[in-house]
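fyi for ur records
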Amino acid sequence: MDEADVWAQIESLYRAHFPQFEQVARAVTGDRESALEAVQEGFADALRHAGQWAGSGPLEGWVWRCVVNRARKARRRPIVHLPAAEPSTNGRPAESELVARLSALPERQRLVVFLRYFADLEYREIAGALGIETGTVSATLYAAHSSLRAGYEEATA
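which gave:
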């Protein structure tokens, strides 16, 4: 695949998935402006280095890595921890409680959760985006689920 084809695919990713890239970048940076800048810079990096993409893994995972790296560099402060809200009446945690619990996860767990459930990436794509093994993605997601579940059970006990 030549560089022009890679550029076209990167542009297609940008157009099709910008909201997901922004949402994940916001989870890393903690604010919208830094997230938007990180997405723009991440895509600029991907375009600038398109000739270096070896084609050995999914292009989307490589672009995610560019955006996540930029978001990590742009991070000014950790995610804002929201005050715990009262549980909703249906016995499930209120949205603000869930956001607070997600915010409290270690960075890798938080990123894996966001890339899996908000960006809808497969394990292999997440591994490529974060530069980790697919098995590490699975283990990290399991740890995040366990932590979230324990917090939920603790709150409802």
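The chain is about 70% helix and 0% strand. thats all i got for now
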